[in-house]
Design a protein that fits this description.
The chain is α/β, with parallel strands linked by helices. It is built from 13 helices and ten strands.
């Protein structure tokens, strides 16, 4: 690659206080056999030795381009700033604590070059702990090859096994995209599944090529606080947003937008119920978090008008109101079903009692009274 030529691949690596793993991450990129790439690193005003480490790497390898932010932008904004600096034909988003395995860039680049219909390449991964110890290997597709973009989107938005939204593709460490499909960056409206949103956007334009061989190591850190249990509350808002952004599949998968929302409510309810049963939280704590999270909460008929707005205009509080509205709707439907069942059982009980009275008043019932008395007497004595 000459200094003037645009690189084939831009490896985009945002970082903040990454001194523990940044060296290993950079080494894994720079040692790739495919070398037609630029490595863009944006530091979000790290307080540790990260800037010193980055300057050393930049000094000895011209492919490393380091940019130091003037203010702390936060993780998502740092990712988007990094992406805006990329000049490559393909975009490889990477994290400062993950590791590329040999052949990662070359295999993914080859998949794109040979297959014009592919808009996203992904691979299996090794999951490692904070010390680098192998925990497991994850491969979410049965074999290496093509998977139609629409089918993958559908399986992410309503997974065949779990019947709810799930990221079948993996983390950024597992993927590569065409630069044209990354324009605009990550959607800042999400709390957690902004990567899945980007994958579904790319797959709306083309197909997935999946490599079953692990080509990266994804570092899994333990959750440090109980508050992480409440990520599910934010996931619920993310689910509503991504369903709205994929309305072309929402009706096909769930029957209607309303049924899709009710599915999110049920999934959230089951998750919180499991937390309570496992002793990880309790109802008062959940209520307190809900109040802190979206205060004030006003459920009123006017909220229904929110559902008619375009998805990109909705705020997270408006999504929460929709979530609460559909929770109440599902509760109301459940109560109505129970009430209907109760009334039906009462009707059946009344009919049984009426039938019993008819039997008791019959001649045959009266004539066999002595036999019933003898039966009771024999049962008592035995």
């Amino acid at each position: 690659m000459t200094s003037q030529a645009a690189p084939e691949i831009s490896v985009c690596l945002p970082v903040y206080n990454g001194e523990a793993y940044i060296g290993q991450a950079l080494d894994s990129v720079l040692s790739q056999s495919f070398n037609n790439f630029e490595l863009i690193v944006t530091d979000d005003i790290s307080k540790d030795r990260t800037p010193e480490i980055l300057r050393a790497y930049q000094a000895r390898d011209p492919r490393v381009k380091v940019f130091f932010n003037e203010v702390n932008n936060g993780a998502l904004a740092n990712y988007n700033h990094n992406l805006s600096l990329a000049k490559g034909k393909y975009i490889k988003i990477f994290a400062a604590d993950d590791v590329m395995m040999d052949g990662h860039l070359g295999r993914m680049h080859e998949a794109f070059e040979k297959n014009p219909s592919v808009s996203l390449v992904a691979c299996a991964k090794q999951i490692i702990d904070s010390e680098g110890k192998l925990l497991s290997i994850s491969s979410t597709f049965p074999s290496t090859g093509f998977y139609p973009g629409k089918d993958v989107r559908k399986n992410c938005l309503k997974n065949q096994d779990s019947s709810h939204i799930i990221n079948m593709i993996g983390e950024p460490a597992c993927t590569m995209l065409r630069a044209a499909d990354v324009r605009g960056g990550f959607d800042a409206g999400y709390f957690h599944i902004t990567d899945l949103d980007m994958w579904t956007r790319a797959l709306a334009k083309g197909d997935l090529y999946y490599i079953c061989e692990p080509l990266c190591k994804y570092r899994q850190h333990k959750d440090s606080t109980t508050s992480n249990n409440f990520k599910s509350l934010y996931y619920a808002l993310d689910f509503l947003r991504i369903l709205d952004k994929n309305l072309d599949l929402c009706t096909e998968l769930y029957g209607s937008r309303e049924q899709a929302y009710l599915s999110v409510v049920e999934h959230l309810g089951r998750f919180l119920d499991s937390l309570v049963k496992d002793g990880k939280t309790d109802i008062p704590t959940i209520s307190e978090n809900l109040r802190d999270w979206a205060d004030p909460i006003k459920i009123q008929s006017g909220i229904k008008r929110v559902a008619d707005q375009r998805p990109e205009t909705l705020t997270n509080q408006e999504y929460f109101r929709q979530l609460a509205l559909f929770s109440l709707l599902r509760t109301g439907e459940t109560a109505a079903r129970l009430d209907s069942t109760y009334k039906e059982l009462n009707k059946q009980l009344a009919a049984c009692r009426q039938e019993l009275e008819i039997i008791k008043s019959s001649a045959s019932w009266r004539s066999t009274k002595i036999l019933r008395m003898l039966g009771k007497l024999i049962k008592t004595q035995s």
